[in-house]
Amino acid sequence: MPARALVVSYALTFYLTSPDATSDAWGNLLLTAAILALPVAIAIAILRYRLYNIDIIIRKTLIYAMLTALLALVYFGSVISLATGAGHIHRYRANRRWPS
To answer: ∠7-8-9 over CA atoms, to 5°?
Structure first.
């Protein structure tokens, strides 16, 4: 049933909108709805019938994203702290006076 609605929406979209109708608001709305119908239908099918073990994929994606963010935080924190420390050492050596 959803496949039929998808085919009908695509057919109506390309039948009702002319190629030069760039300012036609209803045609643009219908075209947008028809283009978005396919990814929405796929997402509904994946979530409804548990295709591709999507819960495992989502869980692993979230774990890898958190680990990547943590690694980036540690990296940039160490770079900033080392740069600050190097700046303090450089200023100390520049301001130190040698005995003459």
So the answer is: 90
Is 54:46 a contact under the CB 8 Å cutoff?
Answer: yes
More reliable by pLDDT, 6 or 70? 70
Whole-model pTM? 0.46
Residue with tokens 């994606």: 61
Q: Please tell me the distance from the alpha carbon of residue 49 to that of residue 63, in angstroms, as a whole number.
A: 24
d(CA 24, CA 16): 11
Read off φ and ψ for residue 18, nearest 5 degrees. Answer: -90, 155
The DSSP call for residue 23 is: S
Of 47, 56, 48, 42, which Cα lies nearest the Cα of 3?
42
